[in-house]
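Lab meeting, action items carried over

1. Structure of the two-component assembly. Owner: GW. Status: complete.
Input record:
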Amino acid sequence: MRQKVKLTELQIGQIARVTSVEESPYKEKLQEMGCIQGALIKPIFKAPFGDPIAFDLEEYTLSMRKTEAQSVNVKLLDPLFYQN
Amino acid sequence: MSSYKKIVLAGNPNCGKSSLFNQLTGLKQKITNIPGTTIENKVGKLIVDGQEIHLIDTPGTYSFNPKSLDEREAVKVYFEDPAPDAIVYVADAANLKRNFFYFSQLAQQGTPMVLVLNMLDIASFKGFEIDIDRLEKELGIRVFKINARLGEGIKNLKQALKEDQFVPHYAFGGDDDHTHESHYDSIAKLLNKTTKLKSKRELVSGKIDAWATHPILGYLLFLIVLLVIFQSVFTIAAYPMDWIEQGFGWLSEFLSKTLAEGWLKRLTINGLLAGVAGVVVFVPQIAILFFFMGLLEDTGYMARVSFIMDKMLRSLGLSGKSVVPLLSGAACAIPAIMSTRNIENWKDRLITIMVTPLMSCSARLPVYTLLISLAIPSDKFLGVVSLQALVMLAMYVLGTLAALVAAVVFKWFIKYEIPSYFIMELPIYHAPRWSNIWLNMWQKSRSFVTEAGKVILIVSMVLWFLASYGPKPTTPFSIQESEELEQSYAGHFGKAIEPAIAPIGFNWKIGISLITSFAAREVFVGTMSTIYSVDDEENFEQIRTKMNNDTTPSGAPVYSLAVVLSLMVFYAFAMQCMGTLAVVYKETKSWKWPTLQFVYMTALAYVSSWVVFALFS
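Predicted assembly:
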């Protein structure tokens, strides 16, 4: 049920919790924007060609490229408990 | 202790800060330039019960560790002397968690703060309930509810600005623990105590996004939006431009009757007035384009355009955030280049700056219009579309393509290790906040008039001198103005460069125009009218006829299709705008980039014109 995955592996609409953000030049930016351990995140739509991707992050919409999303590790949540 | 209070307005982008600033200061605001830098802070003065307050608006920022030039400017204000007396922090109540992050960093600076909650209507729609009293107690500062859009709660806030405020005593992070995690942790605890989520509802924003970012419909929508914008720019701007031209015509006629003869009169009319007219005549087009750009940005649509364009632009060395500067370049490269400040990555920003002047700006329009009327028949293509309009469209496409190709080349040559990213908020859609849009339009147009105006004015006065005086003393008025121009320094210069420009089909007359175009490209038309002794500067028909009738010694027309096309391509690519070069210097703080820009664009223009001339002759 609960598996460790990269943010890019989520399907549109799947809710996950951020477990860690890997070291990168944009880690700080991601964290400032609230992409931080424990945050709820859900991919909601993609740009044409699948990149960048828009996420529901807590209470707002954040877009990032696949490369940046690759550096975010998440834990998939049971959608039954986190209906949106 | 100064007599006035210095108060800084801070907050995340899209929190409604500008609306609040406009509500508090009305139109009594100005942009101050700190000498020697590009820093621009909006300062508004207001007086509450006799207390003078200087309110400083800062660009919207996500953190105290700035990522872009815009954000760097926002943060600098806290280190200035005198230090601010208080910070008014505006937060989007519908997105408190992230909005509190920058707050949590500012709260440690020891400056008194006030918290202003905006967009409570959206917050309550989303199901949030905020306990203001509890929030005040926890933070130890005053908290105000406002609706910046409708102007609610502004009065209370205004009254509070004159009073002394408090330093927040809520401990964000641990004693020595100021990681992002620890701050977000304490924010979560604070919000647990002060807010409740009663129900959960989706906003309509998501439904619009399904359309706006659709793989086919998304681009189609953007294309339609662009067409509507450019169509309106051309049709609406034509009227005020006519009035401005007429106005300056009357003024110069009036001055030529009233002023005493002499060099001062000629300088005033042909140098000064012509220079001012050349700047002012573009204001309508530029203002209208910036009105639309402001509208797209304010409603949130522009962020989606950046989103769908990012992948494509990235492969060209640009970023989704380059969309705004590139589109603004269709009005004027100067404010367009200034709008690159929110691009975080230095390389992305630099490439955007370097290629933006290739976008077809409004100063090229009169040149194209004259040249197209010279060589392109007014037939209808396939009986429907005007051939001349098609060529005009082709010039816009040509400029855009050139900008994109140039970007790819710069991508290869500029070495920069730090990878770019596109971590960007997509703000929710909302109805336009007209006061913001009007102000944005006004400020952008003004930056064009002041930034470009200064340079264009000086250059046109220098050029007036070069075109009016020559190595051999001439007796003014005894000869034709066109002959006078031939004898002038500019005329000599035109002839001197003739061997260099002959391969691309230009004679010395065009050479003079190339030189005078350095003030602004549209000066080409005015110079042509002087060379061909046209009385009424703006009479296209007269200039056109005289140019059409000009022949080479062998009897062939000077302005053949090959020459005209070569000239059009030259004007599309050549860097002929001193104002732009000055702004590129200011924005990159180095002469290297404007020099490179001048060299590559001029080389591109020369080679392309040569190819076009060879192909068509």
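2. GW to write a short summary for the group page. Key points so far: Chain A has a mean pLDDT of 89. Chain A is about 15% helix and 35% strand.
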